[in-house]
């Protein structure tokens, strides 16, 4: 399920947002990735500030539409394979896009990525959380454990 919206201006012209109020329907990174691929797409690659802004606007519209969206982060298609260098300073450079995009655009929250056992990336969506050092936990990126349910 999810809402599909198409535009002409971006390389990826159609986007589909899937948000599950029901926690039992939320899935881990690989499940989300497979669901997108079965649907003929890929987990989202964000390749510019403009595309990031577009997705933020889509999420704001989804929230305004009265669907009762509450806290719940969204998987995006950025991940890091292997963990040999997970704690070193090169860790942020090891993240890659699931669809093969080579875009260097990143929108990490302050102090992210934290690396270690966290190798898959979410876009924050925690409107009820108290702001942290990087401001509200809305739309910036955070690395998380790949088996977390989002």
UniProtKB/TrEMBL annotation:
GO terms for cellular component: cytoplasm; membrane. Keywords: Lectin, Membrane, Signal, Transmembrane, Transmembrane helix. It is a single-pass type I membrane protein. GO terms for biological process: positive regulation of axonogenesis. It holds the Pfam family Lectin_C. It comes from the Eukaryota. One of its GO terms (molecular function) is carbohydrate binding. Signal peptide: none annotated. The keyword rRNA-binding does not apply. It is found in: Membrane. Residues 10-150 form the C-type lectin domain. SUPFAM superfamilies: C-type lectin-like (SSF56436). Gene3D superfamilies: Mannose-Binding Protein A, subunit A. The keyword Transmembrane helix applies. This is CHODL protein. It comes from Tachuris rubrigastra.
């Amino acid at each position: 399920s999810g809402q599909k919206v198409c535009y002409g201006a971006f390389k990826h012209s159609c986007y589909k947002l899937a948000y599950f109020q029901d926690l039992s329907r939320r899935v881990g990174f690989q499940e989300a990735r497979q669901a997108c691929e079965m649907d003929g797409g890929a987990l989202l690659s964000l390749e510019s500030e403009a595309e990031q802004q577009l997705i933020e606007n889509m999420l704001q519209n989804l929230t305004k539409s009265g669907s009762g969206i509450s806290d719940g982060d969204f998987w995006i298609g950025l991940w890091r394979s292997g963990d040999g260098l997970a704690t070193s300073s090169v860790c942020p450079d090891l993240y890659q896009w699931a669809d093969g995009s080579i875009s260097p655009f990143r929108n990490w929250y302050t102090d992210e990525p934290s690396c270690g056992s966290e190798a898959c990336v979410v876009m924050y969506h925690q409107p009820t959380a108290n702001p942290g050092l990087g401001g509200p936990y809305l739309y910036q990126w955070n690395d998380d454990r790949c088996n977390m349910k989002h």
